[in-house]
Amino acid sequence: MLKVTSKTKQNLVLIISILAGFLVGAVIMLVWSYNPLQAYSSMFMSALGNMNGLGETIREATPLIFTAIGFAIASNAGFFNIGLPGQAQAGWLTSIWLVLANPNMPKFVLLPLAIVAGIIAGAIVAGIAGWLRAQFGTNEVITTIMFNYIVLYSSQYLMQQIMPSRLRIDTDTTKTISANGSLKINWLSSMFGDSRINAGIFLAIIAVFLYWYLMKKTTIGFEIRSVGTNPFASRYAGMSTKKNIILSMLLSGGFAGLGGVVQGLGTYQNYFTQTTSLDIGWDGLSVALLGGGTAVGILLAALLFSILKIGGLGMQTIAGIPYEIVSIVIAAIIFFVAIQYVIGLLFKDKGSTPDIEKVSHITEGEQ
Amino acid sequence: MKNTTNVIEMRHIVKDFNGFKANNDINLTLQKGEILALLGENGAGKSTLMNILSGLLTPSAGEIVVRGKKVTIKNPTIAKKLGIGMVHQHFMLMDSFTVLENIILGHEVTKGIRLDFKKAQQEIKELSQRYNLNVDPLKKVSEITVAQQQRVEILKILYRGADIMIFDEPTAVLTPQEITEFIQILHGLANEGKSIILITHKLEEIKQVADRVSVIRAGKSVGNFKVADVSNNRLAELMVGRHVNMQLDKAPAIIGKTILKVANLNVKNKQNIPALKGLSFNLRAGEILGIAGIDGNGQDELVQALTGLTHIDSGHVLINDQETTNQEVRKITEKGVSCIPADRQKFGLILPFSIADNLAIQSYYKKPYSHHHVLNHDLIKQHAQKLVSQFDIRTTGVESPVSDLSGGNQQKVIIARELSRDSNLIIAFQPTRGLDVGAIEYIHHQLLAQRAKGKAILLISYELDEIMQLSDRIIVLHDGNISGEVKPDDTSDKELGLLMTGVKKEGTTFA
């Protein structure tokens, strides 16, 4: 076994995990007689090799950063918010609707208003689950999953039955929003080869910073982390677990809602009927877990996800690899990054055993 | 010492954790049929050594000889095969299983694919009779007392054929009467030829039970003695490495006004069964009121009711003449209440958080530690550094996680946080649980210093010695009410033991 310092180990493990994922992906492609070299080069060329691809990669990462932060905040408080897709969808529909309904409002009013409305929509959806948990101890995994369906089909109803027809093209698609409510920045798009990159990425960077600041520097984050780590000691110290449960779910849903806003006002410029829960919700969950819940980790994991997604499109169109194989390869890569721990067992920390964590627990038990 | 064959020889054992030597050249021998006490402070390496012997850890160096044969105990299965069994401090039993099921778990006797309960029950019956370990094998573990659970643990290892038995702090959870019975059981086991290692802090117990004692300090063997040849004071000194004052200098109490008034308190437990039934008492400034009793007679509920953690059904709590019944935890805390919880890792600390953060969890929300919700980390750290030196918390830095500290130092973190707040009422619930002589001495002195400052101290403890040494008055809690009030000077362990089991004292007004 190799002996390395823990810092080197961390980086080595990450690199080896990613490489192992690519290697397994290559084997899968070889089995079905596709050329992995061609496939991977088209992946990277299309995701990073030109300005348009780069812009799309950044665009793809943007909503994931928000939903991942949403997941991470709830997770800090000890909750598994699996309702990110519904919360994001609520944010998306709300913001688009508001912009379409007020086409003549000045941009400096309309855009912030639409963003805030989307945040509130996501926060309400998550907040209900939080309130149920705080008040009645309802399991948030079940309520948030169910809210995904509630939002999914309520949105369909709202689109088809409630939304005034002047805002729609047909019962499944809204009109495109006016420039007053759009996150699109023309010079940015043209700089990145007319891609759909938008102001959302700046909001995302601010959000990453805010998330870090909130969690590490404020009493709010301190309480959320305390309650999530040890609710008993937190209650004993006079913190309100109920308040923190609801607050963390509101924040979590707010960020997820913002992910939906960026998807709507940034990427698509409209809303169209969804048949399944939003991908950005599910992917945000994976991104948060992959990034270990840290601000920087979320940023990097979101980029990895979007490179694989955008690059995956390139693998299909340029290298002609079927969608199914591409999905398997991407899943293999994410799988290996996720099981870093196993890869880590190949290394030995200097002067310690690989099961040092288990060991230290045993010695701590001494009393 | 009926026979001088060594069943176990541990030679020059070293266990290195990342450069930290938890065991550093330890030698230990256990003779057939003897009771050997293993004495040492927390973190001295006792548990590490015993975990090596029971296969949970592998030594970095040294050799182990069992019954004359050199062995490598790579895992607990090998230890089991060698006849080594351990009764852990925290019992490893399944509450919803019966005693019988717990004992045979992992060693099921089968008839085809069916469990042969009859045969197992017969074997267990024989074992219980032989070693005087009476328990009903068909009762669920959740229905039997702690002392009986301990017997189940003993039966479990006997059933697996152990003849080298390790006990980790076995009397910590027992009442004085139960301890007497337990000591008889130990002697019975030794007489039947079982060899026993007893990990303990209690010097008195060593005197009563053990043949020999092996002292370790900071990972090293300090000495092996025949118990008859060495005094308690000498053992304490060897263990701690300095002179220990076992006798507390207690000045006469200067009693002030009533700080805590509890009147007719009724509280239900988590299962919604009445746990406190009309409890009333007063506590005055400058006084230590000891609450004795067996675990589970309303102590948890009392502390939770006083601190606002549980709902009070009826009755009143007055602190400094102000009603605090069913108020929020923080409101009560701010009325001048400090609480040292019994379970420090569950209620007292947030283990993965830093020492500084743990020292701040009662004050982070106030100026100057935060302003407009923004934490002042520098100040929190400075404050922590001050407390670390003032309360002698042994650590590499205030930013390391509190989980890195030894049990005694973790407790000091809580003590520092709670006593530095200058509260009028100090609730100390099992303040020295699981701590070694040095740490216990320290905490007792701290509590007495608070008493001298005129603080009112409510000491709830299952350790009779502690209650007897510190209290000015003692009330005994039984089944949610007071079964007697005594003065430490004119009572005995025996009387307290009887009160604890609910035999009421004659002439008391509490009925």
From TrEMBL, chain A:
Transmembrane spans: 12-34, 108-129, 197-215, 245-265, 285-308, 320-343
GO molecular function: transmembrane transporter activity
GO cellular component terms given for this protein: plasma membrane
Subcellular location: Cell membrane
CDD domains from the UniProt entry: TM_PBP1_transp_TpRbsC_like
UniProt keyword DNA damage, yes or no: no
Keyword terms: Cell membrane, Membrane, Sugar transport, Transmembrane, Transmembrane helix, Transport
Topology term for the membrane: Multi-pass membrane protein
Pfam families hit by this protein: BPD_transp_2
Main location: membrane
PANTHER family in the cross-refs: ABC TRANSPORTER, PERMEASE PROTEIN, GUANOSINE ABC TRANSPORTER PERMEASE PROTEIN NUPP
Protein name: Simple sugar transport system permease protein
The organism of origin for this protein: Lactobacillus bombicola
Automatic annotation (TrEMBL), chain B:
Domain ABC transporter, first and last residues per copy: 8-243, 260-504
GO annotations of cellular component type: plasma membrane
Alphabetized UniProt keyword annotations: ATP-binding, Cell membrane, Membrane, Nucleotide-binding, Repeat, Sugar transport, Translocase, Transport
Subcellular location per the Swiss-Prot or TrEMBL entry: Cell membrane
Mode of membrane association: Peripheral membrane protein
SMART domains on file: AAA (SM00382)
UniProt entry tagged with the keyword ATP-binding: yes
Source species, domain of life: Bacteria
Entry protein name: Simple sugar transport system ATP-binding protein
Lineage: Bacteria, Bacillati, Bacillota, Bacilli, Lactobacillales
